[in-house]
Amino acid sequence: MKQFSDNEQSYMALALELADRGRFSTRPNPQVGCVLVKAGEIVGQGWHQRAGEPHAEVFALRQAAEQANGASAYINLEPCAHHGRTPPCADALITAGIKRVVVAMEDPYHQVAGEGLKRLRAAGIEVETGLLEAEARWQNRGFISRCERQRPWVRVKLASSLDGRTALANGQSQWITSAEARADGHQLRARSGAVITGIGTVLADKPRLTARVAELEQQPLRVILDSNWQTPVTAPMFNEAGRVLIVGAQKQAIPEQLQQHCKANGHQCLAVSASASGIDLGSLVEHLSALEINEIHVEAGAKLAGAFMQAGLVDELVVYLAPKVLGEKSRGLVVLPEFLQLDEAPQWQWQDIRPIGTDIRLTLTES
Fold first, then answer.
1. Long-range contact list for 176-181, CB < 8 A, 24+ apart?
2. Which of 104, 163, 195, 359 pairs as cysteine with 181 (C-beta 3.0–4.6 A)?
3. What φ, ψ does residue 357 adopt, rounded to 5°?
């Protein structure tokens, strides 16, 4: 495997940093950053800002102008080679006279999938791949999941005490974690295409389920799993910007008042197959994938969080751990069937551990 210099590592790290600026606005497109370097100096940089608008390479080439001729490009994702809502970026790099392109990873999207790199090489441009690939894959994990597995990346977010409790026995849970942890959770909501909760949470907590992030231009789709169609038309989330999708079981008739309310206000009711736990979660995830949702963010009670785990649909687990102990009578983190052997229990691997306010954020991925 090619060894890249420290400077090259820095250039790609900057490309990833630039790409991250589009984390709230590029969906369903991936986050992409581009850095142009000539004679050891950065002459252009850019990032994909919004779906349907120019890609990162275009902004970097505009900034570099004539200095792009003979420069090297560092990009966290393979340049596109197809005509979508914008022209192919591979062609733009060729026309500008770029001499070398270093990409973190190939684009898994079927209309690119190596074609951009082939086009660059055919034009005589030196192409290298694999620089900070793991970081690039993590940054665009939702987009990659939908391309490679034909389903969105599913994240379950939980908040608990040190002894793994999410609420007192009487249901009181506001607030176990700090204001800083709650603000960090809104960042996770904001980068997601859909935020899911259950009807129990809707009735008990009356959540708005919006992402309170100042720079967010479009709220993620808010999804209520409500197998018996109990969602009240007075639910606070109906009064917020963005769309609500209520998902229930086909075996139950949708109340006329709820149907009319959703139709009049731009929301939707969706009936899917039932399961033993209420909703066929696989059918739900398949539907959201068809809507070009890259990342699903689940914020729900212990029963629904456990149902996603039992269905084998959880890719990422984020737990905000507060320095409190609530005791054995308090409510647990997830509801799962009893395990008779330790090797039956779901196994996770650490992705990140960091302090957030007075709490600790644990990020784990499926082992």
1. 176/322, 176/324, 176/326, 177/320, 177/322, 177/357, 177/359, 178/322, 178/356, 178/357, 178/358, 178/359, 179/357, 180/356, 180/357, 180/358, 180/359, 181/320, 181/322, 181/356, 181/357, 181/359, 181/361
2. 359
3. 60, -130
Q: Quote the pTM value.
A: 0.92
Q: Which strands, in side-by-side order, build the sheet including 41-47?
A: 41-47, 33-38, 72-75, 100-103, 126-129
**Cβ contact 193:142 at 8 Å:** yes
What are the pLDDT digits (tens) for 173-231? 778 899 999 999 999 999 999 999 999 999 988 999 999 998 898 999 999 999 999 99
At residue 203, the 3 state secondary structure works out as helix
Q: How many CA atoms lie within 13 A of 72 on its CB side?
A: 18
Token pair recorded at residue 294: 């890259």
CA dist 357 and 68 (Å) reads 44
CA dist., res. 183 & res. 359, Å (int): 12
Contacts of 63 (CB under 8 A, 6+ apart): 36, 43, 44, 45, 46
**CA 366 to CA 156: how far, in whole Å?**
11
- 35, two tokens: 């850095």
* DSSP element (H, E) containing 135: helix 133-139
pLDDT at 285 over 90: yes
